[in-house]
């Protein structure tokens, strides 16, 4: 740990108050007129203005925050979460992922190289988890179900990483329960994206762990729910999930031979038309 933080506590509070992570996006950039009124902060990550802000600044400040300060930051951050699912969720997801210090998407699932890197240099998420527990309390006080869905999604991803990196079946069980929590909160706020994507990621982690039956189960749920919700969330389609759901379909064909024909007849047309 460095002897001095990169910004002051007061500056962190100011960055958090901007609510950039909940602002609208256009493509891969934040697109909001509010940015014009923000006075950037020297020393902050990209002067405090970036997709996923204030996630990285919070992460780097965690070693310098006491319990009371963590609560204050969490309280301020919670007030900026949208109550309803925004059209684009990448900014909010990035913010929560950055708070874990996870600056790359997909964690241990991204590639063989990333899996090896994380296995050799196991990440320490203890301070991140401590802070995010406070954020969860604040979101529950506000009955912000969308915020809780996003929070549990990121929590489940990291539990999945820990499970496959350490061959930890207990963490795998906790991962599964966390993903089911996402579905619970997503149903409360009609977050259609979560209705299928969460099952997909659960399937991927079970595949990585070698739990074929669970991987098939959640792969099927991903496809089933995507057929129902996919076009509601992405009316023009989106390659990101099109390719992944097609990958799930092929996995089921390979490993669920006895039940494959029935499943194929029911969903193949949807896969072809909706998931390319």
Keywords:
single chain, 1% strand, 276 residues
Please specify the SSE layout and strand pairing.
Elements: H1 9-18, E1 25-26, E2 29-30, H2 55-61, H3 67-78, H4 90-99, H5 112-120, H6 126-141, H7 145-166, H8 169-189, H9 192-209, H10 212-233, H11 239-255, H12 257-274
Antiparallel strand pairs: 1-2
Helix pairs in contact: 1-3, 2-4, 3-6, 6-7, 7-8, 7-9, 8-9, 9-10, 10-11, 10-12, 11-12
What does this structure look like?
- Strands 1-2 form a two-stranded antiparallel sheet.
- The protein is built from twelve helices and two strands.
- The model has no long low-confidence stretch (mean pLDDT 91).
- The protein has 276 residues and is mainly alpha-helical.
- A hairpin with a 2-residue loop joins β1 (25-26) and β2 (29-30).
- It is globular, with a radius of gyration of 19 Å.
The general outline is: globular
* Helix content percent band: 55-70%
What is the strand arrangement across the widest sheet?
Answer: 1-2
Mean pLDDT: 91
Please provide a brief summary of the model.
This protein is an all-alpha fold and 276 residues long.
């Amino acid at each position: 740990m460095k002897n001095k933080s990169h910004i002051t506590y007061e500056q962190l509070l100011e960055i958090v108050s901007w609510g950039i992570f909940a602002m609208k996006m256009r493509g891969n950039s934040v697109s909001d007129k509010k940015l014009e009124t923000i006075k950037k902060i020297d020393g902050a990550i990209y002067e405090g203005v970036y997709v996923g802000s204030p996630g990285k600044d919070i992460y780097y400040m965690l070693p310098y925050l006491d319990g009371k300060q963590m609560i204050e930051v969490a309280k301020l951050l919670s007030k900026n979460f949208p109550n309803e699912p925004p059209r684009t969720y990448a900014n909010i997801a990035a913010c929560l992922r950055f708070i874990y210090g996870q600056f790359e998407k997909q964690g241990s699932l991204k590639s063989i190289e990333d899996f090896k890197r994380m296995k050799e240099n196991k990440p320490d998420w203890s301070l991140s988890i401590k802070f995010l527990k406070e954020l969860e309390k604040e979101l529950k006080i506000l009955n912000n179900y969308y915020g809780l869905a996003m929070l549990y999604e990121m929590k489940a991803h990291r539990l999945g990483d820990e499970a496959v990196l350490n061959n930890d079946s207990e963490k795998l069980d906790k991962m599964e329960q966390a993903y089911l929590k996402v579905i619970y909160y997503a149903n409360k706020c009609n977050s259609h994206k979560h209705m299928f994507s969460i099952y997909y990621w659960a399937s991927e982690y079970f595949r990585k762990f070698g739990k074929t039956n669970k991987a098939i189960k959640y792969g099927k749920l991903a496809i089933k729910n995507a057929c129902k919700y996919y076009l509601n969330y992405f009316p023009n389609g989106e390659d990101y999930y099109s390719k992944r759901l097609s990958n799930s379909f092929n996995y089921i064909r390979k490993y669920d031979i006895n039940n494959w024909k029935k499943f194929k007849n029911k969903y193949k047309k949807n896969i072809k038309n909706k998931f390319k």
